[in-house]
Here is the input.
Amino acid sequence: PIGTGGVYGSAVAITSPSGRITYPRVKITWGGTFAAGETVTVKVEAVYTGGTTAYVEKSATATGSQWLTDDDILALITQGKDIVKLNLYAKTSAASTTVAVTVDACGKG
Here is the structure.
């Protein structure tokens, strides 16, 4: 769910049957119709054993797809702990939106 007015919507969680996710790769796709001046942001949050977190954000002002870069992934996996879950959040700068966000993730786990 995409939160409106610059506030993130509720999280969608990605977990692994093994209980940990290693070497995650994440592709974000923005679809639908953007309003003039609208920005839609997706936050990919890694949750580690013990409950600590780190995240990266990607924003778009038009439809298209974007992979998290190697630097983005390194920011998530260099914490010295196992990733147990990825939480995905989305928000728009607008009061309402017709944009849809799809997040595809894969990794070893």
Q: What stands out?
A: The first helix runs from residue 70 to 77. The helical segments are 70-77.
